[in-house]
């Protein structure tokens, strides 16, 4: 739960930055899509949450 809230905040801040700088591209689209999935908690959110949790757990091992 704490990871999800943190990722929503992170995606939200990045999305605001990208919108203010008027940079449109694949990065902005990915950020907006990620923000939408985490915020809306659709059926696709559970696999995305599991994937990001796995990534967060794998980072210390790098």
Walk me through what this model shows.
The structure is a single chain. The protein has 62 residues and is mainly alpha-helical. It has one domain (2-61). Helices cover 77% and strands 0% of the residues. Helix 1 packs antiparallel against helix 2 (26-40). The mean pLDDT is 76.
Helix-strand blueprint:
Elements: H1 2-20, H2 26-40, H3 45-58
Helix pairs in contact: 1-2
In short:
It contains three helices and no strands. By secondary structure, the protein is an all-alpha fold.
Termini gap = 24 Å
Q: What oligomeric state is this?
A: single chain
Q: Tell me the overall shape.
A: globular
Structural class: mainly alpha
Number of domains: 1
Order of helices and strands: HHH
Question: What's the count of strands?
Answer: 0
Q: Can you count the helices?
A: 3
Give the C-alpha Rg: 12 Å
Q: What value does the average pLDDT take?
A: 76
Provide keyphrases for this structure.
globular; 62 residues; mainly alpha; 3 helices
């Amino acid at each position: 739960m704490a990871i999800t809230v943190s990722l929503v905040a992170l995606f939200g801040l990045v999305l605001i930055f990208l919108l203010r700088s008027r940079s449109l591209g694949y990065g902005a689209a990915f950020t907006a899509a990620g923000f939408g999935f985490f915020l809306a908690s659709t059926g696709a959110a559970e696999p995305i949450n599991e994937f990001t949790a796995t990534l967060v757990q794998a980072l210390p091992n790098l």
